[in-house]
From TrEMBL:
Signal sequence, renumbered to the chain: none
Protein name in the entry: TIGR02453 family protein
InterPro entries: CHP02453 (IPR012808), UCP028451 (IPR015996)
Species this chain originates from: Cellulophaga baltica
PANTHER family in UniProt: CHROMOSOME 12, WHOLE GENOME SHOTGUN SEQUENCE, DUF2461 DOMAIN-CONTAINING PROTEIN
Length: 226
């Protein structure tokens, strides 16, 4: 696995962009931006290489710096961070990984950002029947040491068709199933950053393995992939 290392100049550029978030400044510094962007892409490529040693990754997507301002009150044209996502392969796995690099606010994440309606219903039905295995995986001490508690958007009450008094309603009402790990600037610039990110992503696998089992079977445990 290549040992790509970011420099302070990458973070400094993003700080400058935050202060000068306009097309004139960006156009004047576009060559510098492309240099930093390529460095970040190389780093994401190194993470992809490490992930593929233990998981099946369908694709790496490096998000563009340009913001879609059509429906936003914030009309600044550029994002002030670099971001990339890694999608797991096909119907049998699901889920994905994410890295954001932003001065003072970098993080890595893993899980299910936007499960489709059918998948979300299947997860909720599983949790309605029994959450013991799910809670066991996300509550395991070594897992929590890396990833902390599950997070993500959730409903204020029970989804339609579910009992708001159900013992597992704290999980059933979730719309996303995400784990987030914040990273300091020092960690982002460390020579060990790629290695630490990859190790953290490997640590999420028990959760992904369980979710893959849930999403590829019905409530009776019969495979949906046959």
């Amino acid at each position: 696995m290549a040992n790509e290392v970011l420099t302070k100049e990458v973070l400094n550029f993003l700080k400058q962009l935050e202060k000068n978030n306009n097309r004139t400044w960006f156009d004047e510094h576009k060559t510098i931006f492309k240099t930093h962007e390529n460095k970040v892409k190389d780093l994401y490529g190194s993470v992809l290489e490490g992930l593929r040693a233990t998981d099946e990754i369908e694709k790496l997507k490096v998000f563009r710096i340009y913001r879609d301002v059509r429906f936003s009150k914030d009309k600044t044209p550029y994002k002030i961070h670099f971001a990339g996502s890694f999608s797991r392969t096909g119907a049998k796995l699901r889920g994905g990984y994410y890295i954001r690099i932003k001065p003072g606010d970098s993080f890595i994440a893993a899980g299910f950002w936007d499960p489709n309606k059918e998948d979300l219903f299947r997860i909720r039905k599983e949790l309605e029947v029994d959450s013991e295995e799910f809670r066991g995986v996300i509550g395991e001490s070594s897992f929590k040491k890396v990833w902390g508690d599950i997070t993500g958007d959730e409903l204020k009450t029970a989804p339609k068709g579910f009992d708001k008094e159900h013992e597992n309603i704290d999980l059933i009402r979730k719309k996303q199933f995400i784990f987030v790990k914040k990273m300091t600037d020092k960690e982002v610039l460390s020579p060990n950053f790629v290695e630490e990110v990859t190790k953290s992503f490997v640590a999420i696998r028990p959760f992904f393995d369980l979710m893959s089992d849930i999403l590829t079977t019905d409530l009776n445990g019969t495979s949906l992939l046959d």
